[in-house]
Amino acid sequence: MASEAEILDELRRLRARVPQLTGALAAGVDGSVLAQDTPGVEPERVAALTADALGTAVRMADATGQGDFRELLVRGVYGYVATYAAGPGAVLTLLAQDRVNVGRLHLEGRRAGARIEELLAAGAPAPSAAEPSARTTTARTRTARSPRTTSTANARSTTES
Question: What pLDDT, in 10s, does the model give residues 12-24?
Fold first, then answer.
């Protein structure tokens, strides 16, 4: 697994790119803290709540046919909590002021989530041939929907005079 220092470095770079961030946390989908830069916020509590919200978001996306979880945005009176997928076993949760540019938040959050996924994948030990492979959860990807077609069977022509 990637070291906490590598992930923490990514979180700090992210906070430097988006000054309106007030906190950043990488967590396992089980609610464990991988790394955090969340001054004034209890990281274990945020990680546990993130895991709970993630479970609900995944179920909602599945139930509505929207595909696999990518991100979750909560807007409060004082700002935003945004959670992004960071591979099959981790998520990135960002805390932001209410004046943050939400498009920029999404752009940088998605990039940082992908970078954390890379760090975790690079640090994961390769399974040996002698060991039976454990069942792993893979990140599911959203498949493109087929384009909608419009039926013209009942269309009327207006060429009559």
Answer: 999 999 999 999 9
| pLDDT at residue 123, as a whole number | 80
- The answer on pLDDT for 135 being more than 60 is no
Supply φ then ψ for residue 82, to 5 degrees.
-125, 135
Instruction: Give residue 3's pLDDT.
Output: 82
What single letter denotes the amino acid at residue 30? D
pLDDT at 42: 97
Instruction: At 89, list the tokens.
Output: 């076993």
pTM for the whole structure? 0.76
> How many whole angstroms from its chain centre is CA 124?
20
Q: Among positive and negative, which fits the CA dihedral 131, 137, 138, 143?
A: positive
pLDDT of residue 124: 65
Backbone angles phi, psi at 120, to 5 degrees: -70, -40
- The answer for residues whose C-beta is within 8 angstroms of residue 47's C-beta and 6 or more apart is 25, 27, 28, 31, 32, 33, 36, 93
